């Protein structure tokens, strides 16, 4: 693969792409549905069509094992990542099966549904703080603290520690969006990762000394009773649940509210017909999901997609948001339609790595959006759309740094 073959970073890692990646995704899906891509961090291959994306997400030749003998994580995450990122997200069966089985019961739909009253209370408490102001940064005041509070309570993070855990995760989430020099930015992220790793290791030890009825407590018991997890895996699994349990939900909520505010006819339709909300959540996830490209995979052999040879050892990205706008599967895919009949979108992934927290994410989204529509009448953007600040295009997540809104009270 030569530099001339690659889609240059200048096309994919710009403010314009961060604001609206879908025209570029459409062009690639038509002209180069499987293509090499240059990036600021690592070169990769990008798959953009729905059928190919769905197939790639279950292709055993595309491995998720980044920490095996070839140590692909060094290219992707760097040398300091193993303490937090060596988890089930970056593993293949049977390791993935073993790790996922331990935590899957904690996210069973029946257990998650039992949390609904508590999540509803958290939603209302956050909105209670917003209402007297008449305006808000919904990311800071609502979209981020809601799923962070929920996952911290599920894991068993003491309330007094929620604030600093949130601070560390936000340093990681917003990497690349500050005005600091790149070296300072990297150092800040590494420090946040280190502090979070030490904190979680200490919390796990505390749970062993004082067992509790929470997810970390259950993981500790799994280690102590049948050695299902090693000590290191226990910490990395806790990190994955903490980060994945709030990051994508927070970004989804921000993206969803912004999509509704910029499509006022859909917003009013949803207000007038609340029964549409479950279908609307699926449509909003399809329309502008928080994970534009699935986490990296590695080609374990030469692979052909669309007649294009992806060489062994290549990093492969499956462009979920591009696939979810494929006109071969979704009529008029660039139109937001909360009445759209629910289709097989890839917003929660596909295959063995299908989102473990899907029931929790849907429940949080339903309660959050329902309460915002009901309790904040006249909700509208507080700044012109062009001034809404987003995560940088190089971020693995698609989300907002801020969402200024106003409303009537």
Automatic annotation (TrEMBL):
SUPFAM superfamilies: Cytochrome P450 (SSF48264). CDD domains: CYP107-like (cd11029). InterPro entries: Cyt_P450, Cyt_P450_B, Cyt_P450_CS, Cyt_P450_sf. It holds the Pfam family p450. One of its GO terms (molecular function) is oxidoreductase activity, acting on paired donors, with incorporation or reduction of molecular oxygen. Pathway: Antibiotic biosynthesis; mycinamicin biosynthesis. One of its GO terms (biological process) is antibiotic biosynthetic process. Keywords: Antibiotic biosynthesis, Heme, Iron, Metal-binding, Monooxygenase, NADP, Oxidoreductase. Coiled coil: none annotated. Belongs to the cytochrome P450 family. This is Cytochrome P450. It comes from Micromonospora sediminicola.
């Amino acid at each position: 693969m030569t530099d001339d073959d690659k889609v240059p970073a200048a096309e994919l890692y710009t403010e314009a792409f961060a604001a609206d990646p879908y025209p570029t995704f459409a062009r690639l899906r038509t002209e180069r549905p499987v293509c090499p891509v240059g990036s600021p961090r690592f070169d990769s291959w990008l798959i953009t069509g729905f059928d190919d994306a769905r197939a790639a997400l279950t292709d055993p030749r595309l491995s998720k094992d980044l920490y095996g003998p070839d140590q692909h994580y060094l290219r992707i995450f760097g040398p300091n990542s193993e303490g937090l990122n060596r988890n089930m997200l970056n593993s293949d069966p049977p390791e993935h099966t073993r790790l996922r089985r331990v935590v899957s019961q904690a996210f069973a739909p029946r257990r998650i549904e039992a949390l609904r009253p508590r999540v509803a209370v958290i939603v209302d408490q956050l909105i209670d703080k917003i209402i007297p102001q008449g305006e808000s940064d919904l990311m800071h005041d609502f979209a981020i603290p809601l799923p962070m509070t929920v996952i911290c309570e599920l894991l068993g993070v003491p309330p007094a520690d929620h604030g600093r855990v949130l601070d560390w995760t936000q340093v990681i989430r917003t990497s690349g969006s500050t005005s600091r020099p790149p070296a300072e930015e990297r150092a800040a992220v590494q420090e946040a990762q280190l502090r979070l790793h030490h904190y979680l290791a200490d919390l796990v030890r505390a749970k062993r000394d004082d067992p509790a009825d929470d997810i970390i407590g259950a993981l500790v018991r799994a280690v102590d009773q049948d050695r299902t997890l090693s000590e290191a895996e226990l910490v990395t699994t806790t990190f994955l649940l903490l980060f994945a349990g709030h990051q994508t939900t927070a970004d989804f909520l921000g993206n969803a509210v912004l999509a509704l505010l910029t499509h006022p006819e859909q917003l009013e339709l949803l207000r007038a017909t609340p029964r549409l909300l479950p279908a609307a959540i699926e449509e909003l996830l399809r329309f502008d999901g928080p994970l534009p490209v699935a986490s990296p995979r590695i080609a374990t052999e030469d692979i052909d997609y669309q007649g294009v040879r992806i060489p062994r050892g290549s990093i492969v990205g499956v462009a979920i948001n591009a696939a979810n706008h494929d006109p071969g599967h979704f009529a008029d895919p660039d139109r937001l339609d909360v009445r759209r009949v629910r289709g097989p979108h890839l917003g929660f992934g596909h295959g063995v790595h299908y989102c473990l927290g899907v029931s929790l994410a849907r429940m949080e989204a339903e309660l959050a959006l329902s309460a915002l529509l009901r309790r904040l009448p006249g909700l509208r953007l507080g700044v012109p759309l062009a001034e809404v600040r987003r995560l940088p295009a190089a971020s693995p997540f698609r989300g907002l740094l801020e969402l200024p809104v106003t409303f009537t009270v």
